Amino acid sequence: MLTERIVVGEPDCIPGFMPLIVGEDIGRYDLSCSRQIKLDVPGINYKDQKLYGQERLLVRKTGIGLKATVTKKVAASNQVVFHYVPRSKDLGFFLYYVLGVLSSRTMFAYHLRKSGENEWRSHPYVTPKSLAALPIPTPEVGTQAWRQAVEIANRVRKHLRYQGRSKKLDLEIEGLVAGLYGLGQSDLGWVKKVICEAQNLEPMRALSEFDASSISIEVVS
After folding, report:
1. Whether 101 contacts 174, CB under 8 Å
2. Where are the domains of the chain?
């Protein structure tokens, strides 16, 4: 008996299939897509393909920490990938701004402390509700916070061109996020401490490789 394969592990385009993004494809500022899903299969709830092609923020539901990126890739996604789009095209930079704040060590440390050690060890995932509860400022047009958000977005765009692998840009974004929240070096020391306390888990090891003094806090005038 032949079984129809609906999802195949193939990175290249196949006629009648569409790229599929799953949770493990999303890293911090990074995206890979190694699967394809067959189109027009009865019983599968496909979304409008226009939705799959627009610029959007992708957040991984499962796994330790906050994994997110922005993409324009035309691809479907499964239920463990949350995606967000701006309410207006004029606010397109917000995707990159939110990505920078969401991916920062500061937000990661806050998330770890807020959720509690037992919680993120036993239930390592985020939900739309927990994401909405994160204290990401919504700046008003023309304010200093707005200019700070725009600059965070600009650096994040550059960082994405390096697949999130530029340590220099990574720390620059950290400094801008610290400036957004009005943090000082002692606050960054707390961030380092929180992450190091959990560094027996692989995602924490990578994020803990910094010194508070290596981050230059930047406030846009």
Report:
1. no
2. 7-204
CA distance 102 to 162: 18
Token code pair at residue 173: 């974004």
Is 112 within 8 Å of 198 (Cβ atoms)? yes
User: Cβ distance 95 to 86 under 8 Å?
Assistant: yes
Report the distance separating Cα 25 and Cα 32, nearest Å. 5
Note down pLDDT in tens along the chain; length 221 residues.
345 688 877 767 778 888 889 988 999 999 988 888 888 888 777 777 777 888 999 999 987 778 999 999 888 888 889 989 888 877 779 999 999 999 999 998 998 888 765 555 655 778 889 899 999 999 999 999 999 999 999 999 999 998 888 999 999 999 999 999 999 999 999 998 888 877 565 556 667 777 777 788 888 88
Angstrom distances, CA of residue 43 to CA of 39, 40, 78, 98, 164 = 11, 9, 15, 35, 37
Which CATH class name applies to 7-204?
Answer: alpha beta
What letter represents residue 22's amino acid?
V
Pull the structure tokens for residue 123.
């239930």
